[in-house]
Amino acid sequence: xxGVLVGLGLAAVPVYRAPHxxxxxxxxxxxxxxxxxxxxxxxxxxxxxxxxxxxxxxLHADASREDEAGNPFARFGAALxxxxxxxxxxxxxxxxxxxxxxxxxxxxxxxLPAPDSPxxxxxxxSMGYExxxxxxxxxxxxxxxxxxxALVFRREGLLTWRLAGVRLPATPSSAP
Length: 176
Fold this sequence. Notes:
The chain is of the alpha+beta class. The protein is 51% helix and 18% strand.
């Protein structure tokens, strides 16, 4: 009986560690600028929908506040911005789009820090399960007061986890 319990416990370790390995693999692929390997860890369709939904919610929340403040063009601006954001997200959140971004062809190098500039601020990272099929990684800058960003990984099968969503940070004016 003890042997069976030990065996089950040992068998559970790889299942428990699977999302951690996916996060580590995603980090390594980003660092190596390896778009093919990065694509193994991303569910592009789900990620696109998550980003579109998050951007739309933020734009409409901001428009509601502006509308209440008397800005007659707030809703029109939000609708226009959402219409522009959707195709942009569709174009960028693809394996080819990631390859361009990782190669620096879409990013304006003038906006990037010089190689000898100080490193970006450190971030605090926490990870945890949100149920058996969702694993969330929350990154919070340790300085500067920037809000946290959450990356949502979803289980696909027993040991495979892929980035499927992003929870955009709430702006101070839209926080509950």
